Amino acid sequence: MSPVSHDHHPIPPVVRFANISKTYGKGEAATKALSDASLAIEPGSFTAIIGPSGSGKSTILNLLGLLDRPTAGEYWLDGKRADSITDDGDRARLRRETIGFVFQQFNLLPKATALGNVMMPGIYTSLPHRKQRATSLLKLVGLGHRLHHLPSQLSGGEQQRVAIARALINEPKILLADEPTGNLDSKTGETILELLKDLNKEGKTLVIVTHDAYVAEQADTLITMKDGEVV
Predict the structure, then answer these.
(1) DSSP labels for the chain?
(2) 164 in any annotated domain
(3) Which pLDDT score is estimated for 69?
(4) Which range of residues forms the domain containing residue 84?
(5) What are phi and psi of 78, to 5 degrees?
(6) What is the CATH number of the domain that holds 85?
(7) Residues 6+ apart with CB under 8 A from 97
(8) In angstroms, rounded to a whole number, what is the distance separating the alpha carbons of residues 112 and 160?
(9) Residue 136, exposed/middle/buried by CB under 10 A (0-12, 13-18, 19+)?
(10) 195 HSE (CA, 13 A, CB side)
(11) Can you tell me the distance from the alpha carbon of 206 to that of 175, in angstroms, rounded to the nearest whole number?
C-alpha cells in the first residue's frame, strides 16, 4: 500500500455556485435570467465572465456581490452558505467584509474628494486609521498627488483608480469588476487592467465581467455565458 499524505488539504473555492437559478417576475411574466449555473472560483485566481448582452452576466455579478438572491441553488462564499442569509444587515456585513466592487460608471460621490470617496465604505466598519489607509491606497494606485481633487477634476482613468482604491478599503478577499475598462479609451483601459492584474498577483481574487476579448484573454479562467446558462 502506498503511504497516504495528510498534509495537503485542497483549498476550497472562495466562490461556489451549485445549480443556481434566478427568475424575475411571476407566472406568464416570469423571465429566467439564470438557469442551473454551477461554477467555482479559486482563491487568488483571475476569472473573466464573458457573453453577449442579456446572457446573464449582470445577474451572476449581482448574485456574486450579494446584491440579489438566487431563486434556487446554493451559493457558498468564503466557506459560508450565502444564499440562505435572509437578514439584509447580515448580507451587507458579509458583502462589506468579503467583496470590493469596481463599476463601469465609477459611481463616485461628486461632492467628495478622492480621499473622501475612498474612505466612504470604511465608515460602516470599525476600521482604525481609515484616513491613513485611504491615503496609502490612493498612493498605491498612483494618485498620491490627487487626494483633495473632486471627481470632476479627475480624468476617467483617474476616477477609475479612485474607485479601485475605494474597493480595497475594507481589505476584501474578492474584487468584482463590472466592465471596468468600458468607459475608458483603450490606452487608459490597458493601464487600469494592468493595475487590477497587479492586485491579483498580490493575492486578490479578481472577477471581471466584460465583453472585451482583450480583457478576457488575460484571465486564468474564462466563464462564458449564453442565454442564462454557463456554457
Answers:
(1) -PPPP-S-PPPPPSEEEEEEEEEES-GGG-EEEEEEEEEEE-TT-EEEEE--TTSSHHHHHHHHTTSS--SEEEEEETTEE-TT---HHHHHHHHHHHEEEE-TT----TTS-HHHHHHGGGGGTT-TTHHHHHHHHHHHTT-TT-TT--GGGS-HHHHHHHHHHHHHTT--SEEEEESTTTTS-HHHHHHHHHHHHHHHHTT-EEEEE---HHHHHT-SEEEEEETTEE-
(2) yes
(3) 92
(4) 15-226
(5) 50, 40
(6) 3.40.50.300
(7) 170, 172
(8) 15
(9) middle
(10) 28
(11) 5
Per-residue pLDDT tens over the stretch 43-89: 999 999 998 888 888 899 999 999 999 999 999 998 889 999 989 89
Residue 36 lies in a domain: yes
Q: What is the four-CA torsion angle of 24, 25, 29, 30, rounded to 10 degrees? A: 40
CA-CA distance, 6 to 80, in Å (whole number)?
24
Neighbours of 27 (CB within 10 A): 5
What does the alpha-carbon distance between residue 133 and residue 95 come to, in Å, rounded to a whole number?
20
Which tens digit of pLDDT belongs to each residue from 180-209? Answer: 998 899 899 999 999 999 999 999 999 999
Q: How far apart are CA 120 and CA 122, in angstroms?
A: 5
Cα 28 versus chain centre, distance: 33
The cell 480621499 sits on which residue?
115
